[in-house]
Amino acid sequence: MKIKIIDVRTPEEFMGGNVAGSVNIPLQEIEQRIQEIKAVDEPIILCCASGNRSGQANAYLKSLGINCENGGSWTDVNHNYQNS
Questions:
Q1: How many CB atoms lie under 10 A from the CB of residue 16?
Q2: Exposure string over 32-43, b if 16+ CB within 10 A, otherwise e
Q3: Could you list the active site residues?
Q4: 25-72 pLDDT, tens per residue?
C-alpha cells in the first residue's frame, strides 16, 4: 500500500531525524498548506515526536474530510511503515 507520511514537527526537529521519504509540514503551517495536503492521492499518515501534535493535525484534517491517520511518533511510524 502506498502512503504519504507527513511529519508535523518543527524543521529543526525534522532535520534531527525523520522517516525516509516523509514530508515536513510543521503543525503551525497545516492551515496555510491545506491545498498541498488535499492534493495528496495516497492515504496520509501523520507523525511528530510523541503523537500529540500529529493528533491535533489529524483531527483538523479529518474535519475537512481528508483521509489521514495519526501514526504517533516518527520513530513508531519509521518502524511500522518502513516498507510502505
A1: 11
A2: eeeeebeeeeee
A3: 48
A4: 999 999 999 999 999 999 999 999 999 999 999 999 999 999 999 999
pTM, rounded to two decimals = 0.94
Q: What residues does each domain of the chain span?
A: 4-80
Which superfamily, per CATH, for 4-80?
Rhodanese-like domain (3.40.250.10)
Residue 84 has pLDDT above 70, yes or no: no
Please provide the distance, in angstroms rounded to a whole number, between the alpha carbons at the two ends of the chain: 6
Question: What dihedral do alpha carbons 73, 66, 23, 42 form, nearest 10°?
Answer: 100
**Contact predicate 44/68, CB 8 Å:** yes
